[in-house]
TrEMBL record, chain A:
Keywords: ATP-binding, Hydrolase, Nucleotide-binding. It comes from the Bacteria. This is Biotin-dependent carboxyltransferase family protein. SUPFAM superfamilies: Cyclophilin-like. It comes from Rhizobium brockwellii. SMART domains: AHS2. Residues 23-312 form the Carboxyltransferase domain. NCBIfam families: urea_amlyse_rel.
UniProtKB/TrEMBL annotation, chain B:
It comes from the Bacteria. This is 5-oxoprolinase subunit PxpB. It comes from Rhizobium leguminosarum. Gene3D superfamilies: Cyclophilin-like. Residues 22-220 form the Carboxyltransferase domain. The gene is pxpB. GO terms for molecular function: 5-oxoprolinase (ATP-hydrolyzing) activity; ATP binding. Its EC number is 3.5.2.9.
Amino acid sequence: MIEIIESGPFNTVQDLGRPGYRDIGVSASGAMDPLAVRIGNILVGNDESAAAIEVQTFPFSLRFERRVVFAVTGADGNPHLNGSELLSWCAYLAEPGQVLELKQPPRLARSYISLGGGLDIPVVMGSQSTSLRGGFGGNAGRPLAKGDRIAVGEDAEIAMLPASGIAVVEPAVALRDVFPAAVDGTLPIRALPAGEHDLFAGDGEAFWSQTWRISSRSDRTGYRLSGEPITPTASIEMRSHGVVPGVIQVPPGGEPIVQMSDANTAGGYPKIAGVIECDLWRLGQARIGARLTFVRSTHAEARMVEQAVAGYVEDVRQTSRMVKRALKAMA
Amino acid sequence: MIVTTNRHASQREIVPATQSLARVSSIGARSFLLEAPGDFDLVAQRRIWALSQSVKGWPDLEENIPGMTNLLVIFKETPEDPDAMVARLLEAWENARSIDLKGKTIEIPVHYGGEHATDLPALCDLSGLSDREVVRIHHEATYRVFALGSAPGFGYLHGLDPRIYMPRKTVPSLKMPKGCVTIGGMQTGVAMLTGPNGWNSIGFATLEMFDPTSPTPATMAPGDTVRFLPAGIEL
């Protein structure tokens, strides 16, 4: 068991999502930074799709009621265990009674806590993710709150962790060549033109050339962007159609909305572009007020990024397995 | 497919644009949207259902989501040659025969008018009809579930009488209650969640239509027939 000692609103249980039910109106949900969840799970010896705790309102703390392997991934702030600072992107062993505390990270938006053995909560429609809109999944369909207690699954590998922990090189560093850094604080996000792009004529170019700011009316469902409004040359109303995370829609006000993890499953606003899937975690780590520009990309580039990310994850998986095996042999 | 509207003008301004060929556009790298040409009608939707059935057999397909005379197709991987995917989809569309899904009939008791019918007066103004006529026209029609989406279990219903078409609102209602019976353009439906909603409410239904713990979580399915039964009329 773990017990939540302190939590802000909107911290939830998330895994890699609940795809496959968009055709009955159910959003996929899942972590805003799925790469952090995958790496965290590999570090603690879980299946990489196991559920983790997504912390997006800080401070957050929990108490371990038994020995548990844990890792904090995602954000750039360091966690504290009973007051001592630990590294992010590193698996550690917690003793019963110890308290893990996460403070507001300096730049990024979301931290993930993975626990060896995973969270022992029901799977609803194929996933443990919290569907906030639907009110089901995760922790009884709602955010975590002080006093909540969650069971942790059995961990067969608990003895294999070295006392000093196991760390990885975080994705932003390991994949530096693939994910261009922010320029003067402005994050480049790659996207492909979408269905109604041409309807924006000159404003289409304004979409790509300007710097957008993530407005305070942003959440896991979508990011609303502030900037010089863009408008289509004709007022249109689309027949409702399926949408996915990454779709950038332009409502009548002219300020784009990027659909995120809790994306609506259907929409009717004109779509100017779609963020490539591998850049979504970077957007998921961008905070309210952050600046970004959209960079016109291609299917070929999207594939290249996907392959690089897959290579990195596979490398972490192999190495972590090898290190644990070697340590076990030495023990 | 595009429907042109003028939000403040008469319903006659809602005119489907005509196109002879299906249109395929991309949404991100793995998803493609095929929009059927022609009218917003059951003929087009039957071919969309047929297309949905045939793409289900594709080994590289992850998910497909039927919309209103359109289909979103999500592949497992970003395709190496996106143009080939577009060609494949268009070919499947050309070969798609019309099928009619044998659905069930769902009867939904509705309380028309009253406190939840926040947009009924505006609909009367727009249509030039009395509230009684609007209600009668709405409950006398037979609807088909074309597709589900937007909220868990929400069915997009086709079959609305053109006399009571009403464009979506430019500024959505912030907290429309679950159960509101609504009209959005040429579509009608029942709100499944309390929240922001751009459709126009004319009544209220209390039927539960989604249960995540059920093997079939959504009550409605594409092809189903829906009848609204006036359980109360408060005008």
